[in-house]
Amino acid sequence: MEQLFSYGTLRSKEIQMRVFRKLLTGTPDQLNGYKLKSLKIEEEFGMADYVVAIASESLSDVIHGVVFNVTLADLAKVDLFESNAYKRVKVTLNSGISAWVYTEN
């Protein structure tokens, strides 16, 4: 199994059903040394507001989210779901868990 840290839309049960066709199991966690930045992404019906994780100069900056257990096939689905404004990188969460997270491309 892989670990995926989500701080945004992937925490939504509706989005999980749309992307994975199942609900994910997760636990709260934090990502230190990152902060959220507003991001506009063009969608089918116009521009939508999202956030993206970016590395911070301060280790005291923290993003709260959920770490999910996912398969490699699930990660491939998320890669398709996330726009080209994001890239997937490996990070170490506050709990010590090594997880994938989507950051600014």
TrEMBL record:
Signal peptide: none
Residue ranges of every copy of the Gamma-glutamylcyclotransferase AIG2-like domain listed in the record: 4-103
Coiled-coil regions listed in the entry: none
CDD domains documented for this protein: GGCT_like
InterPro entries associated with the record: AIG2-like_dom, GGCT-like, GGCT-like_sf
One function term, GO molecular function aspect: transferase activity
Annotated keywords: Transferase
Keyword Electron transport: no
Pfam families documented for this protein: GGACT
UniProt name for this protein: Gamma-glutamylcyclotransferase
Organism this protein belongs to: Flavobacterium oncorhynchi
